[in-house]
Amino acid sequence: LDPEEFRRQGHIMVDFLADYFNDIEKYPVRSQVEPGYLKKLLADSAPNQPESIEKILQNVRKDIFPGLTHWQSPNFFAYFPCISSTAGILGEMLTAGLNVVGFNWIASPAATELECIVMDWLGKLINLPKTHLFSGGGGGVIQGTTCEAMLCTIVAARDQMLDKVGRENIDKLVVYASDQTHFSFQKAVKISGIKLENFRAIPTTKATEYALCPISLSKTIQEDKKTGLLPLFLCATVGTTSTTVVDPLKPLCEIAKEYGIWVHVDAAYAGNACICPEFQHFLNGVENANSFSLNAHKWLFSILDCCCLWVKDPNSLTKALSTTPECLRNKATDSKQVVDYKDWQISLSRRFRALKLWLVLRSYGVVNLRNFIRSHVKMAKHFEELVAVDERFEIVAPRNFSMVCFRVSPLALQEKVIFVEEDQVNKFNAKVLESINSCGNIHMTHAVVGGVYMMRFAIGAPLTDYRHINMAWDVIRNHVNVLLKNLSS
Ligand code: PLP
User: Which pLDDT score, from 0 to 100, does residue 432 have?
Assistant: First the structure.
């Protein structure tokens, strides 16, 4: 590593990325390449001789860019946002440059201590109860993804229970979620060794706007208890992936408490909005949850990956996940005065992720972070109003945050087709979405809830402004006009 050469190439790289952000609207938002496109463009084997950064970046522009879906494009409205920011990118750069491996405190004390501090900062900001913070006996850790956070907490709950009832009873453990819970929960359950037959995805209905109904949870638990099963874990969601519905934490946590069930709250996207006091009511009841996580890389400018997990009882986590081989023994660990984060996660080695979150919180300050979130929510309201005044469209789920779920309504089709069935409406909307995504001007994704196919318009890319929302609405209407016209001809 030659510091002067690093300086030279680093400047080139920063210029390259700054140009990328300047030009980002020129690229089709969703990649338009066919599978296997890259193999045809690149050499069969690694080069023997060194190549210059200039040449490599030329290849990035020519060969890699076409295969990118541009998540930071202001015309990206798909999935949930995964927002870049200057502070986040620079934080990542600092992490990569320092490249410390803070598996335990002694391996890099600042990496651990900063993480403890920023996790308390962020926890306070979203108004988590003190019991979940280091300052109140709990604590937080930065993991890669929500799926990892779910796995770690299930394993902690599993071991806590099996210590009481005996390891041989693992097949009796039952976990609960709703049919709207993110599928990564099922993956975590699968890895944890809990029987998949004991995974209850409790059906939700339109009556509760697809939130998990406490009565349904209670009935399901009682049925399981009657057959001798052991209720273990509930995953509740604040802001589901399909429609951003919020499960009622208070009654759900109360029921869980009655049966000694561990509650994890997955607030991957919407938890970030809780830095604004007006959204904090969605967390009412969280004081009775055992763990809570959000993805700061989704809507808090912190660059993938930055999943923040808080637990009320860190001992339950470390009991399940700790290993202390002789080679890692040290005075600090033995003193029990320090956090060794290797015992709070799946892997041993870990990146200094706290830096980027620290940079984001410091560089923007709470005031600006709240303003960003609020501006996205305001733009979503604006889009919702545009949809609402065009009678050919309908909003199909209540908007809680910065995502609008809508579709072309059956009424629009009735003008062209005599008998309109739900399946036809779904197929038409799917055609609209594919047509829009194929043109590359904007990108949205879909969900199917209660048999209804809906388009999701999720706002949060860092450069999105009202101009892009209005343009997106024009694109959507133009595609619908053409497809409706084709329907009649
Ligand atoms: N939970 C919710 C509510 C999500 O929306 C998502 C992803 O969008 C996840 C979990 C999965 O997150 P991860 O990819 O971090 O595991």
Answer: 97
Contact 321, 160 (CB under 8 A): no
Separation CA 238–CA 292 (nearest Å): 10
CA–CA gap between residue 437 and residue 417 (Å, rounded):
25
> 331 alpha carbon to ligand 1 midpoint, in Å?
38
- Determine which residue's CA is closest to atom 12 belonging to ligand 1: 146
Domains along the sequence of the chain with CATH? 101-351 (3.40.640.10)
> Which of 294, 301, 315, 305 minimizes the C-alpha distance to 352?
305
- Reported in sequence order, the residue ranges of 250-299 that DSSP labels E, i.e. its strands, are 262-266, 291-295
Question: Which residues surround ligand 1 with Cβ inside 6 Å?
Answer: 80, 145-147, 182, 184, 237, 239-241, 266, 268-269, 295, 307
Which residue's C-alpha comes closest to atom 11 of ligand 1? 146
Q: What tokens appear for 86 in the block?
A: 């200057």
Structure tokens at 248: 């009622």
**CA 145 – ligand 1 centroid, Å:** 7
Cα–Cα distance for residue pair 198/231, rounded to 1 Å: 9
Quote the ligand 1 centre to 241 CA distance (angstroms): 7
Q: Taking the mean position of all CA atoms in its chain, how far away is CA 405? A: 18
pLDDT band at 417 (very low <50, low <70, confident <90, very high): confident
SS3 content of the chain, % helix, strand, coil (to 5): 55, 15, 35
Task: Compute the distance from residue 266 Cα to the ligand 1 centre, in Å.
Answer: 8
Between the CA of 184 and the centroid of ligand 1 the distance, in Å, is: 7
Structure token pair of residue 382? 């604006």
Going by the DSSP 8-state scheme, the letter that residue 246 receives in this structure is B
The complex scores an ipTM of 0.98
Structure tokens at 115: 């993480």
Mutate to test the pocket of ligand 1, among 295, 401, 402 (most ligand atoms within 8 A of CB): 295
Phi-psi region of 260 (alpha: psi -120 to 50; beta: other; left: phi over 0): left
Pocket test for ligand 1, best of 148, 241, 299, 300 (most atoms within 8 A of CB): 241
Phi first, then psi: what are they for 138, rounded to 5°? -95, -145
- Residue 183 CA to ligand 1 center (angstroms) comes to 8
Atom of ligand 1 nearest to the CA of 270: 3
Q: For residue 355, which of 195, 142, 201 has the smallest C-alpha distance?
A: 142
Alpha carbons 346 and 26: distance in angstroms, whole number: 40
**Helix (H/G/I), strand (E/B), else coil: 262:** strand
Q: Tell me the two tokens of residue 219.
A: 């009935």
Ligand 1 atom nearest the C-alpha of 307 is 15
HSE of 408, CA atoms in CB hemisphere, 13 A: 27
pLDDT digits (tens, 9 = 90+) for 38-94: 999 999 999 999 999 999 999 999 999 999 999 999 999 999 999 999 999 999 999
Distances (CA, A) of 403 to 108, 395, 456, 461: 40, 11, 7, 12
